[in-house]
Amino acid sequence: MLQNNAVRTLQYDSEIRVAQQPSPTEPRVYDSHISITSQPRSEAPRIPLPMPIATVTGSRTFIPLAGYDCLADLPSVHIEQTFELNEALTGVSSENRYVVRSPLGDAIFAASESSTENNRLVWGSGRPFQMHLLDKTHQEALVFRKKFALGSLCCQPKNLEIWIPPGNVLGRVVQSPTFMQPEFFIEDGNTGQPLFCVEGPANSGFCCFCLPKDCYFKINSGGNMRASIDHKWLASKSQYTTNIYFSDAKLTAKERALILGSAFLLEYLYFQTRF
Q1: How many Å separate Cα 241 from the centre of its chain?
Q2: d(CA 81, CA 90)
Q3: Terminus-to-terminus CA distance in the chain, angstroms?
Q4: Which long-range contacts (CB under 8 A, 24 or more apart) does 209-212 make?
Q5: Of 196, 162, 197, the residue nearest 183 (C-alpha)
Q6: DSSP assignments along 139-201, one per residue
Q7: Could you say which DSSP state residue 117 is in?
Q8: Residue 213 phi/psi, 5° resolution?
Q9: From the first residue on, what is the mean pLDDT of each consecutive set of 10 residues in the chain (275 residues)?
Q10: What does the alpha-carbon distance between residue 204 and residue 227 come to, in Å, rounded to a whole number?
């Protein structure tokens, strides 16, 4: 009898202890005061930093509203490709890198390609890629995005999109289905309306291999030439450079950025011979 009573008492005490244990799903209540030391933060906006620019009359420092504002008032810009020793020795193409310079040789942008190794090996210079342009303050100013396309003859015109941070389309460069000479249209990113027409050498055909090393492209708008792009040998640096000359001084910084994007598309379609 006593043994049975002891067993029942032990079971009763065990049930009480189990019932008194806090449930893991129940919220914990604190009697003491809790101080919040930090608040959730949103992503910091891009703050333009002062940028020094060398001009013909001297040097000046300004704060650009957008990363491409440093292209304003420049009569020309020059694109130089930088080659790596590993690529020269092995012959395997790596991601391209460029420096965009002012007429005085001042570096404006540092451009670096982002692409996959398989696309570089299979498609060569026709590969899809992203080109990131950083200004002197190491902030991203422009992004060029080229998707894979077989060409206008296959109902897939080759094109390149020009983006600005944090993710707005500034415009695009679209290939036109012509046979006698290369032709492209530079379109506005908001309206989709063509702003400029890029015309290559006449009677050069549709194939990119028909173009000579030294070639010349005209950029027209409204029947007037607004700018030009050429590809010439630079003896002082022993390499070819892609040069943009702005004939119209009234071109806005946005229009100059779109023309710069078209020059990079021409660089890959016609001037790149390394695979």
Answers
A1: 20
A2: 18
A3: 96
A4: 211/182, 211/270
A5: 197
A6: -EEEEEEE----BGGGTB--EEEEEETTTEEEEEEEE---SSS-EEEEEETTT--EEEEEE--
A7: H
A8: -65, -45
A9: 47 45 51 55 56 57 72 93 68 82 92 89 85 91 88 67 91 85 91 93 61 85 93 85 94 96 92 59
A10: 20
The first and second tokens of residue 70, run together, are 């440093």
Q: What's the whole-model pTM score?
A: 0.74
- Whole-angstrom Cα distance, residue 267 to residue 264? 5
**Residue 197, exposed/middle/buried by CB under 10 A (0-12, 13-18, 19+)?**
middle
Question: Residue 32 is which amino acid?
Answer: S
Helices (runs of H) and strands (runs of E) counted in the chain: 4, 14
Amino acid identity at 104: L
How far is residue 110's CA from residue 100's CA, in Å, rounded to a whole number?
A: 6
- CA nearest neighbour of 217 among 241, 245, 188: 245
Q: Is 130 helix (H, G, I), strand (E, B) or coil?
A: strand
